[in-house]
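Input chain follows. Return structure tokens only.
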Amino acid sequence: MKKFYITSLFLILIAGLILSGLNSFAADSKKVKKLYTVREYSTTTKDNHIIKSYLSYPKTKQKSYPGVIMLHSFGYNSSYWQNLQEEFNNNGYAVLRIDLRGHGKSVYDSSFHQRSWRVFKNDTFAKYPDDVMQVTENVQTETKKFDFNNYIIIGADIGANTSVLFAEKNKIKPKAMVLISPSMTFKGLYIPIALAELDKTPILGICSKTNKKDADELIKLSKFAQNTYDVLYTDKGSSGMLLLKQYNELNSKIFNWCTKYLKK
């Protein structure tokens, strides 16, 4: 009888631990439940390259949301924006992330020939602003969830330079722009003149204090800006999107700065 009692008690304890674990798992599952919807789009450019983009927006019945276009760093892809994307989505904004040509899933043409950024020359990088234009035009025909009359752009290094050139070309200008590690020119994407044309667009420039090249470029570009040109430095660190990985608090700082200009 004593053995049976001890065995029964042991089994009860094990069962309790299992149930506790299941309840904990269920609670954790609720915590990580996404509060936003993600849709993938394919855009075939005029030269038959396929550009992949990802639109995410809050799970509410609202018809349209103020939007954020995110353009990643050279050699990366749009998934690296996830933390910043969620910051915006969870606070009522739509986000359009684009895999730039030759990056992420944007490596195929319509005949399924694969081409990577590693083999691109400057004449191919020069197509980036038009690629972004065609993506935004395509997404507008597919959904009204992203308000292209009320948007900002966030770009990092080549994505930053692409952002400026796209914004200058686009009829509807962004409410503001965040440029992480921008430069006077990146793979032939020269932006000073285009930056001067964006005379009504506030800009936040970000780079590391210890990255002298980026810091010098940020100051040079400030001379061409015609409106607000705020500068945010990290104490140290690398360049481009890597700064967001090294300084997670940058996500909140970027969000807070952007929402001064991007009104809901």
